[in-house]
């Protein structure tokens, strides 16, 4: 068993959010609108991610963007005309919502330029980050506010002066879709030492069923490593490959640890999972949840007559509903 090292904490203040992807899986909706601005109920997906960084104490946020991403800057900027109109109408609730995103964080922007992968997007943050450790949050994964993940990762990173990634246990049959970690236990059941990383391995070659989800706390040495990292899967510079170099590197680099997440996560990077995310978040909302859950249960009860035989529905009150022939 590996014991975590004790070192003087180093305060981490900056978060980097790559947001340069084209969002082709959501065409035509993303033809003119960034995928990060797609609403999850009534809030753009990107705002949930920035909120998570702020909740963890990271108020300095850098968005790594690309072409046609002006809507991101507009969302976190002042909207003077809209604010004035809402103020004249006395609509204080909507005005508060508009101002909330403006005042949420100190948001900065840098263009990625060529779409060379996640590793390249992180590398574009070098000038802003400097010689500090920093967090990276991917916008496709929304972490429920009731299940803080980043706070725990920052505690481990600062306390041990190490690099930390978020891990999730999945069915072994799904490992080929993700970066997968080889791990050793530590004295904390929620923290493991990572001894190796593989990007989207064949199922039979996966070193474990721990996959990397979109949260990282990185030491600044990652930039030098990314500079030397050659394109990997898909011809892109993979952050996973750079992390593998760190994990296999000398002790002076601090190694790589994983925080195992066991809470609620909403995957908005896939159309079906995006719809599921909206339903789950809406059902838990205090303002919408009671009426929405009631309607959802009623609607689900009518579905067996409308969907193919053999599919299975899930009712949160009664469990699964097999669809059988009438």
Topology:
Elements: E1 14-19, E2 39-40, E3 43-44, H1 45-55, E4 60-65, H2 70-75, H3 80-89, H4 92-103, E5 106-111, H5 118-123, H6 126-129, E6 134-137, E7 141-143, H7 150-160, E8 163-169, E9 179-185, E10 191-199, E11 210-218, H8 221-228, H9 239-247, E12 256-260, E13 265-267, H10 271-284, H11 289-302, E14 312-315, E15 319-322
Parallel strand pairs: 1-4, 1-6, 4-5, 8-12
Antiparallel strand pairs: 2-3, 6-11, 7-13, 8-11, 9-10, 10-12, 14-15
Helix pairs in contact: 3-4, 10-11
Percent of residues in helices? 25-40%
* Percent strand: 15-25%
**Count, helices:** 11
Q: Helix- and strand-based class?
A: alpha/beta
Low-confidence stretches: 1-9, 313-326
Coarse shape: globular
- Number of β-strand runs: 15
Distance from N terminus to C terminus (CA atoms, Å) equals 57 Å
Write up what this structure looks like.
The protein is of the alpha/beta class and 326 residues long. The chain has 11 helices and 15 strands. The strands form 4 sheets. Strands 5-4-1-6-11-8-12-10-9 form a 9-stranded mixed β-sheet. The chain has a two-stranded antiparallel sheet with strand order 2-3. A hairpin with a 2-residue loop joins strand 2 (39-40) and strand 3. Helix 3 runs antiparallel to helix 4 (92-103) and helix 10 (271-284) crosses helix 11 (289-302).
Brief description of this entry?
The chain is α/β, with parallel strands linked by helices and 326 residues long. 32% of the residues lie in helices and 24% in strands.
From the structure above, extract its key features.
nine-stranded mixed β-sheet; disordered N terminus; two-stranded antiparallel sheet; alpha/beta; 326 residues; single chain
């Amino acid at each position: 068993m590996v014991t975590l090292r004790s070192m003087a904490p180093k305060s981490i203040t900056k978060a980097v959010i790559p947001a340069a992807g084209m969002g082709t899986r959501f065409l035509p909706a993303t033809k003119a609108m960034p995928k990060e601005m797609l609403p999850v109920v009534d809030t753009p997906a990107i705002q949930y991610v920035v909120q998570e960084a702020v909740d963890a104490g990271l108020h300095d946020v850098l968005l790594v963007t690309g072409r046609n991403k002006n809507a991101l800057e507009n969302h976190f900027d002042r909207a003077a005309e809209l604010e004035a109109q809402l103020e004249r109408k006395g609509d204080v609730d909507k005005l508060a919502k508009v101002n909330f995103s403006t005042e949420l964080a100190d948001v900065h922007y840098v263009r990625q330029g060529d779409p060379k992968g996640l590793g390249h997007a992180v590398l574009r943050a070098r000038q802003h980050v400097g010689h500090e450790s920093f967090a990276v949050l991917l916008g496709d994964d929304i972490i429920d506010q009731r299940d803080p993940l980043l706070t725990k990762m920052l505690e481990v990173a600062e306390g041990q002066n190490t690099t930390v990634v978020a891990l999730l246990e999945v069915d072994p049959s799904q490992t080929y879709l993700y970066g997968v970690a080889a791990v050793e236990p530590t004295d904390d059941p929620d923290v493991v030492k990572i001894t190796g990383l593989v990007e989207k391995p064949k199922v039979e070659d996966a070193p474990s069923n721990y996959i990397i989800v979109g949260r990282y706390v990185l030491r600044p040495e990652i930039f030098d490593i990314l500079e030397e990292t050659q394109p990997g899967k898909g011809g892109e510079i993979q952050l996973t490959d750079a992390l593998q170099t760190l994990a296999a590197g000398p002790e002076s680099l601090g190694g790589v640890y994983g925080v195992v997440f066991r809470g609620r996560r909403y995957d908005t990077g896939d159309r079906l999972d995006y719809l599921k995310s909206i339903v789950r978040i809406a059902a838990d909302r205090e303002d919408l949840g009671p009426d929405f859950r009631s309607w959802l249960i009623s609607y689900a009860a009518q579905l067996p007559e409308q969907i193919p035989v053999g599919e299975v529905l899930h009712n949160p009150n009664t469990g699964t509903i097999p669809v059988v022939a009438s």
